[in-house]
Design brief:
32% helix; alpha+beta; 3-stranded antiparallel β-sheet
Length: 149
């Protein structure tokens, strides 16, 4: 299993003409033929990418919303797709620190420190957090899914 790549896929722009092609490329990179739950209804996409009128239409706005939803569906546990906190023009894959803390507190039923190894059967993962706050997410066989420093 390849480690999921965290970070930015597009920054410095909110233009749909810039974002939609990057989102399409990212969806194609993350999907495989054996993923029937991910469907992209983007018939004629190539032609639309060259139509400036499309990018100023409501269809482009709706397409953007759909692509963000698809990219979120493709995220591993405790990762979300969206903008970087504090920079609304930096789209990418980011660690959901609050969700990790909530899951650890729910599994351990305490408010103690979140550092150490935490088996989270509800997510089918192991989260390891060191005393510096670096986090690594493993599957149950201890293969790295993602890591954040």
């Amino acid at each position: 299993m390849a480690q999921f790549q965290l970070g930015s896929i597009s920054h410095g722009t909110l233009r749909l003409k810039d974002l939609i092609p990057v989102f399409i490329d990212t969806i194609h990179r993350l999907t495989t033929p054996d993923m029937p739950t991910v469907s992209i209804d983007w018939i004629g996409a190539d032609a639309r990418l060259f139509d400036d009128d499309f990018f100023t239409s409501d269809d482009a706005d709706q397409t953007m919303v759909e692509f963000v939803e698809i990219l979120n569906e493709l995220c591993p546990p405790f990762i979300y797709f969206g903008t970087l906190e504090g920079d609304g023009a930096d789209f990418g894959f980011w660690v959901d620190v609050e969700a990790i803390g909530e899951s650890i507190r729910h599994e351990t039923e305490s408010d103690e420190s979140v550092s150490g190894d935490h088996v989270l059967p509800s997510e089918n993962v192991i989260i390891q957090i060191n005393d510096h706050g670096n986090a690594t997410c493993y599957d149950m066989e201890r293969n790295v899914i993602w890591s954040a420093v």
